[in-house]
């Protein structure tokens, strides 16, 4: 029997996802027509003998309840549970804190996934290698450009044995072009290893405090709290690699982080393209009396699209959206209850809930071509060329052009804006 844990974080962790996370928690934001976390659950549901999926985070309990109820209906063979951390315990702290509930039923293998990733999720292949190699854990890695390797947790891998020889979190100098994907599988014994790692961390903090006391430093700090935070990357994975207890599995499919709000658009495209390759039934196609559909497009059944509109590629249109004559939408996400009037254009953008786009209005961002383009949408307080984002309930008047900008909720745009953040 196998289990899975998805680390969903909490409200304070999604600041780069604003203004979209002001309306909805980042894990529940829709990409590819489904919430980000749904894609992980769907992939986990296809893992052999996986019986339970546990979400761990510090959101309020009620936040995920409706979503998990839907998951229970869609995947009835899997049990779902949300466990709330009493405080921020570190990237591995919640996992370790709830170990008794995780090991209940005596699972052989335990998956751990971060929620802020988009991936092809070859989890059965990952599990097969983990069981074949018999190590304490297996980390899924992907090849990244050497120039951007410092942005990730980097793994040095023995090509013959597939052992992870070193793990370094965001190295200052080049270590490896193999990056952690935020997907792991562990044997149940991982909790003993984590207990030892936590004891070592507490000892190090106590020694540091003793030194500070000896030098007469009396500044108040939260070191006791910090000492009890268990960091997966620095405290666990690095030591596992040093003790030859971590193997590495290469992900040859797609992978991308979903850190900033802008990163949702390329993630949306990747999932839609995958669905198109899988011939998924929920994708829209051109019909005699419908709009022109190009490439991978998701349109919610309740959306109303004028037959003269041109939609796609890589577009998600959600519930109760109304699209008028001559509208062009490309490489974008249009959220619930949006109205787009005649001949407007939405390109490389996210249009938030309840927005109104006037006739001949234009909301346009810049196409993202590299994974490194999406980590930040501002530089020194200035909006950089990236996805254009409208927060909830933004009104764009007729013939107004919003380009490469971020607009916070409840704004009325009566004039053109370029490369601005409208507060």
UniProtKB/TrEMBL annotation:
It catalyses: alpha-D-mannose 1-phosphate + GTP + H(+) = GDP-alpha-D-mannose + diphosphate. Residues 293-422 form the Mannose-1-phosphate guanyltransferase C-terminal domain. It is an enzyme of class 2 (transferase). Gene3D superfamilies: Hexapeptide repeat proteins (2.160.10.10), Spore Coat Polysaccharide Biosynthesis Protein SpsA, Chain A (3.90.550.10). This is mannose-1-phosphate guanylyltransferase. InterPro entries: GMPPB_C, Mannose-1P_guanyltransferase, NTP_transferase_dom, Nucleotide-diphossugar_trans. CDD domains: M1P_guanylylT_A_like_N. Its EC number is 2.7.7.13. Belongs to the transferase hexapeptide repeat family. GO terms for molecular function: GTP binding; mannose-1-phosphate guanylyltransferase (GTP) activity. Pathway: Nucleotide-sugar biosynthesis; GDP-alpha-D-mannose biosynthesis; GDP-alpha-D-mannose from alpha-D-mannose 1-phosphate (GTP route): step 1/1. Residues 3-200 form the Nucleotidyl transferase domain. It comes from Coemansia aciculifera.
């Amino acid at each position: 029997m196998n289990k899975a844990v998805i680390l969903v974080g909490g409200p304070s962790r999604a600041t780069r996802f604003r203004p979209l996370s002001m309306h909805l928690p980042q894990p529940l934001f829709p990409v590819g027509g489904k919430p980000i976390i749904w894609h992980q659950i769907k992939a986990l549901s296809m893992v052999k003998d996986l019986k339970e999926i546990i979400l761990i985070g510090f959101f309020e309990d009620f936040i995920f309840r409706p979503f998990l109820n839907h998951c229970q209906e869609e995947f009835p063979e899997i049990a779902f549970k949300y466990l709330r951390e009493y405080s921020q315990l570190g990237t591995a702290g919640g996992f370790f804190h709830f170990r008794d509930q995780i090991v209940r039923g005596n699972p052989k293998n335990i998956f751990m996934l971060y929620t802020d990733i988009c991936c092809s999720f070859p989890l059965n292949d990952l599990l097969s290698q983990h069981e074949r190699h018999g190590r304490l854990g297996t980390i899924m890695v992907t090849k990244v450009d050497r120039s951007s390797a410092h942005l990730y947790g980097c793994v040095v891998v023995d090509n013959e044995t597939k052992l992870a020889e070193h793990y370094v979190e965001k190295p200052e100098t080049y270590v490896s072009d193999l990056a952690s994907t935020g997907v792991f599988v562990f044997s149940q014994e991982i909790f003993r290893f984590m207990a030892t790692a936590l004891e070592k961390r507490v000892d190090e903090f106590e020694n540091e405090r003793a030194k500070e006391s000896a030098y007469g430093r009396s500044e108040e700090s939260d070191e006791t709290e910090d000492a009890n935070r268990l960091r997966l990357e620095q405290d666990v994975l690095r030591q596992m690699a040093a003790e030859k207890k971590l193997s590495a599995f290469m992900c040859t499919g797609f992978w991308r982080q979903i850190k900033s709000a802008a990163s949702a658009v390329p993630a949306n495209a990747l999932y839609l393209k995958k669905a198109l390759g899988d011939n998924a039934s929920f994708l829209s196609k051109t019909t005699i009396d419908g709009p022109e559909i190009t490439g991978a497009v998701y349109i919610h059944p309740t959306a109303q699209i004028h037959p003269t509109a041109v939609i796609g590629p890589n577009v998600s249109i959600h519930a109760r959206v109304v699209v008028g004559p001559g509208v062009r939408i490309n490489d974008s996400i249009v959220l619930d209850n949006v109205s787009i009037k005649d001949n407007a254009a939405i390109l490389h953008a996210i249009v938030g809930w309840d927005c109104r786009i006037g006739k001949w209005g234009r909301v346009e961002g810049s196409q993202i071509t590299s994974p490194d383009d999406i980590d930040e949408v501002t530089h020194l307080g200035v909006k950089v060329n990236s996805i254009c984002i409208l927060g909830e309930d933004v009104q764009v008047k007729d013939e107004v052009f919003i380009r490469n900008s971020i607009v916070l909720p409840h704004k009325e745009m009566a004039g053109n804006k370029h490369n601005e953040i409208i507060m």
